[in-house]
Amino acid sequence: MSTEVSFTSNGLRIAGLFFAPEGRVGERLPAIVVSHPGGGVKEQTASIYAQRLADKGYAALVFDAAYQGESEGQPRGLEDPYQRSEDVKSAVSYLTTRDDVDPERIGALGICASGGYVPFAAQADTRIKAVGTVSAFDAGDAVRNGLDGRQGPAGLRQILDLSTAMRTAEAGGADPAYAPIVPESLEEGGEGYEYYRTPRGQHPRSDNKQLVRSIDRLVQFDAFRFMSMISPRPVLMIAGTEAFSRPYSDKAVALAQGPSELFLIEGATHMSLYDQDEHVTPAVDKLDEFFGKALAA
User: Could you tell me if residue 186 is inside a domain?
Assistant: First the structure.
């Protein structure tokens, strides 16, 4: 079960859900911040992992990023990596205020784009004692280089011109412009469409709309540039052997100079690790082993 909670991040109200293990009343628990994918909301895969971690004995906090879901922030649909990092830090701050959480035993788990935002936050926030990721994705790299890594300078300039043109248009009174996060057909959207746009994972507040001018915020973001700053705190990155995003986890683990591990799940894709039990179960078991050791009393 979960309880609705809220906290502030850069002055914005952030809507969250707090999961606690049953029968552990009166204890100060190890806790894990679980941060949702880009385009997602707290009720989707983040809550799946939070509930499974609560079943293992952890407190877990999920939340909607600022400007998204039930959280405050205008314009809606802004994807700001620095705000997303601040949201993670603010979630940690909230956990430290709870009587049922041990403030010295807080870890963080990022899924997909949050697999970039969580390590980035932890590089500077030493209260995060252990960092886990599932299907990590560097949204800044994807904007700079394209999902296939083949976007050249001309392509980058084109999307930056588009983003900054939107700023000019809004300054003149135009409504914010939006683009779909995943293509609106199975043929073009693949597993992204299968998860976000069908009953499998669809949620009414995950509306598949991102503010176009998020581009010029994302483009300078480098999730893993300072991975070494997490050391000596441990890092665990979980990826599927069939995931398009696996190279991001390979890169991040290579850059981490402290204890780090890449754990591969055979046959898993980027999004099968969101909700498919055959892949989520071994991921959660590995996270339990990792956080159990890292956050031991």
Answer: no
Domain of 90 in residue numbering reads as 2-145+221-294
Strand partners for 209: 180
Q: Can you read off the two tokens belonging to residue 141?
A: 């790299």
pTM for this model (two decimals): 0.96
CATH assignment at residue 37: 3.40.50.1820
Would you say residue 26 lies in a domain?
yes
Is 177 inside a domain boundary? no
Into how many domains does the chain fold? 1
Residue 35 forms beta bridges with which residues? 63, 110
Among 164, 171, 210, 197, which Cα is nearest to 67's?
210
Answer whether residue 41 is part of any domain. Answer: yes
**How far lies 156's CA from each of 159, 216, 243, in Å?**
5, 10, 25
- With b for 16 or more beta-carbon neighbours within 10 A and e for fewer, the 3-15 pattern comes to eebebebeebebb
Residues 6+ away with beta carbon under 8 Å from 199: none
- Answer whether 88's CB lies under 8 Å from 117's CB: yes
- Give the type of residue at 194: E
- pLDDT band of residue 261 (cuts 50, 70, 90) is very high
Question: Which of 138, 16, 5, 28 is closest to 88 using CA atoms?
Answer: 16
Per-residue pLDDT reduced to its tens digit, 195-251? 999 999 999 999 999 999 999 999 999 999 999 999 999 999 999 999 999 999 999
